[in-house]
Write a structure and sequence with these properties.
Length: 134
């Protein structure tokens, strides 16, 4: 019994080409989705219970560069960093003067949950363009 496959080499080349392209596309998709999330958080920072005083919170939202196919969107962190108080509003905090726990007023988690589908659509757009599907 002899089995012959025609075009298998071409198929293997195409699969290898897609594998090589997708590594670069992953980072590109993360950047596009991260930028979208950053803009959404910045635009809604005062829509979820925070009051505008200095306007520092809106400008403190940043996006890291992708490393190991991971990307972070939020504030830089640290007590001296602009917008450090957004962390306390997200998770709540113990007020030393008032001697009570201040309930959280979440922002980032709400914006993220409301925009999951939009972020995934950003990923899909990058992959479709990168693979020549659109």
């Amino acid at each position: 019994m002899n089995i012959e496959f025609e075009g298998i080499d071409e198929l293997i080349r195409e699969v290898e080409k897609i594998e090589g392209v997708t590594e670069d596309l992953k980072d590109e998709a993360l950047i596009k989705g991260g930028d979208f999330l950053k803009e959404q958080i910045s635009s809604e920072v005062y829509s979820h219970g925070l009051t505008r005083r200095s306007g520092e919170a809106q400008g403190s939202i940043t996006r890291t560069d992708p490393a190991n196919h991971e990307l972070f969107v939020g504030t830089k962190g640290g007590a001296q960093a602009p917008g450090f108080y957004l962390y306390m509003h997200e998770f709540g905090f113990w007020n030393v003067r008032a001697q009570r726990f201040i309930a959280p007023k979440p922002l980032v988690s709400i914006v993220y949950e409301n925009n999951k589908d939009n972020i995934l659509n950003q990923y899909v757009d990058v992959f479709q363009k990168g693979l020549g599907m659109s």
